[in-house]
Amino acid sequence: MRRVSTITVAGVTTAALAFTLTACGESSTESGGGKSKGVGLAFDVGGRDDHSFNESAARGVDKAKKELGVDNRLMTAKNGETEADREQRLNSLAEAGYNPVIGVGFNYSKSIEKVAKDFPKTTFGIVDSVAPGNNIDSITFGEHEGSYLAGVAAALKSKNHKVGFIGGVNNALIQKFQAGFEQGAKDTDSNVQVTSQYLYPNNDKGFNDPAAAKDKAKGMLDSGIDVIYTAAGLSGNGSIEAIAGQKDAWAIGVDSDQYQQPGLEKYKDHILTSVVKNVDVAVYDLIKSVKDGKPLTGEHKYLLKDGGVSLATSGGFIDDIKDKIEAAKKKIVDGQVKVHTSP
Questions:
Q1: Which CATH number fits domain 143-277+311-334: 3.65.10.10, 3.30.470.20, 1.20.120.530, 3.40.50.2300?
Q2: Fewest beta carbons less than 10 Å away: which of 20, 47, 81, 92?
Q3: Is the pLDDT reported for residue 28 higher than 50?
């Protein structure tokens, strides 16, 4: 086992495959000698085909299949689940012989901690949270840092000096996105008005309700806001759809480079940029470490300085402001700017 504080990461690849909201994926046949059957991965609500957070994790599994020959089984959470539901999903993957077992999303934190104790020889991974345990890899990101750059871009591109943030669920993690975005926008344009709203106060449906995000975005557009950053998983698709229906309005995507997502192709001319969170890289790193016999454990932070988060340039819409984006990035990396983690 090895512990490190940060990991140098590479860029992301893109893929979009249809996926059902029930247990599915590829499972290898039982391996002999007690060897792992492959990786067991549990998605958060919204499933693989959310064009955002879950799909980024899926790309890491795809890469492991292609480059390492590691098979997999993929399962997906549903709206309104209990802790027992999540524990049962993780337990079934570990009991079936999958290693590592990865929970995608902070909702799996408590269940990972509990189930990992029952399977000490299995390596577990939790994305977006930190869970104690000698056999747990806690994967976190500098969402606030990437969101700061999004705020810079939004302030520079807004004609009305009005920008908006839509969060799926009002919790500590999504507040990191909000805080960074607000700070980046205000540091760039002291006259900018930033409006931040949430779809739900504490209901995970906020990550799986495109209609609610569409309505929220429409309200912002009607108020004169012309750049909207949405951090809400699958729900963000509804926000992007609403924005694409209005001339001279921009959407900022999240987690994946949403300009590159085939499922969002008809809206791509309105996707200014995306805050890319390299969940795929982190998932691949963990899978490879287990295959190599040196499983990652402890907390691993994927930050702006490592390329763990970044601002997408697809479409060329921020090419004219790239020097200012790079200048802001340098200040963060050098420590001249401390990005807030809460509003």
A1: 3.40.50.2300
A2: 20
A3: no
